[in-house]
Amino acid sequence: MTAQAALILLVSPFIVGLIRKVKARLQSRRGASLFQPYADLLKLLRKETVISSNASWLFTATPYVLFASTFAASLLVPLFLSRVPLNFAGDVITVVSLLTLGTFFLMLAGLDTGSAFGGMGSSREAIVFSLTEPATILAIFAVGLTAGSTNLSTIVHDTAVTQGFVRDPPPHLMALAALFIVTLAETGRVPVDNPATHLELTMIHEAMILEYSGRYLALIEWASAIKLLLFLTLLSNVFAPWGIATEADPARMALATGAWALKVSALAAVIGVVESMFAKLRLFRVTDLLGAAFILSLLALVFFYILRG
Amino acid sequence: MPSSSVLGHPDLGSQLINLCSMLLLLTAFAIVAQRRLSACVDLFALQSVFLAVTAVLVAWFTGSLHIYVAALLTVVIKTVAIPIILKKVIERVNVKREVEFVVNIPPSLLICGALVILAFSVTEPISKLGFLLTRDSLAIALAIVLIGFFTMIARKKAVTQIVGFLMMENGLFLGATASAYGMPLIVELGVFFDVLVAGLIVGVYAHRLQDTFDSVDTTKLTGLKE
Questions:
Q1: Cβ separation of A302 and B117 shorter than 8 Å?
Q2: Predicted TM-score (pTM) of this structure
Q3: Whole-Å CA distances, A245 to A12, A36, A64, A143, A231
Q4: Is the ipTM, as predicted for this complex, more than 0.85?
Q5: Per-residue pLDDT tens for B38-55?
Q6: Do the domain assignments include residue B151?
Q7: Total tally of structural domains belonging to chain B
Q8: Is residue B2 part of a domain?
């Protein structure tokens, strides 16, 4: 399905723009155009790239690895059709490991140039990532257990066929709360990281990519946008697969694309509101938040065994 | 008396009630993970709103009118009156606005997780025999009672202790609504009055603590000598 690939590549910068717009409006600013991220990407792609003379091959390989792995992961998540393009290639574990691969390379690249900020960013990212990882996996497993599969297509298809009426609300609700916190942490949104800051003491993601410029930076920015879209799609389609097409029928697929666009935009708006409502947590408080996410997803899993076991 | 098959879906009632009880449990966790005193009170008010919604749902699906009255009382007393009293206490005894812990947040969350598992395994044999409509709610109610109890033990300030106490009361109310479709109205009225009085007493108690120790930290009470 090239349509899903094209849609993900094209829509992802728009979501970033949408979140910025919502935040700007809530702060009584007019904000940049919704299409500003596209312009930024184009500008960066045309700019000259500067590479530190200390940098090794890792530094130049990372943007490509990150982009390719994130993009591949996004093709494994059902978007408008419950059968995904790369269904044969793997399940939700593949998605998570592909994302981990990208993040791992990014952390290495942060360390590679030997700048103080890069190393600091990488070590912080490692803390955050090691805490979100178990919560993500457990949350999706809790949902997978209800559907009886770890395959995202099957999970979404199963729920979509039963009219989107989730069979076991309690575990799903806990998993949803956990996955929402994880989404904020993994995509570097406000309570954990601030995507708009270059203040040395607080940045996590921005510190790692500080040394990048030109087309490499464009690739990384684009990859983070895709990752954000991937998580939003995961949230909306795993927990509320309303309107998703269960067979490849053009009319239903068009409708499903519309429904998906609505759901994802609504979630993006929610993230914009959350970012405006909360202040960034101190780094050592982040463990509280992510600990809560982990406990929630663990409980979702335990619920399944106790209630249905 | 409408059966549980209203609105065409056989489990809709039970699903909605479970969902709402789950929101109660989620807010209980949020209270445990909260560091700011006033946010604790706000979250308690939110929890009471969910409790009222659950009660209304039970009333709707079982057709018992007196639960509507209980739901209304929940809204008036627990989401309006008590939060106002507690907010005033926090404002007037103008101390550090942060919650003080005996057990820190991450271990607290772990312990509460364990408590939930305990509650579920204890009620499992009963739930199997229970009503179809409120299958999971009894376990959730017990879990909330335990978490409330834990909050009273693990937090030092008088205000957080009353929030823990009220959370326990919310759990008990949920349990009564879920397992017995509500208590007799006269009992419920008595309970609501007790809760309101407890709120007032803690207000006074917090003031006395503040006067005597310049703090509302209840651990200082152990230092009292004859």
A1: yes
A2: 0.83
A3: 21, 31, 32, 20, 19
A4: no
A5: 888 899 999 999 999 988
A6: yes
A7: 1
A8: no
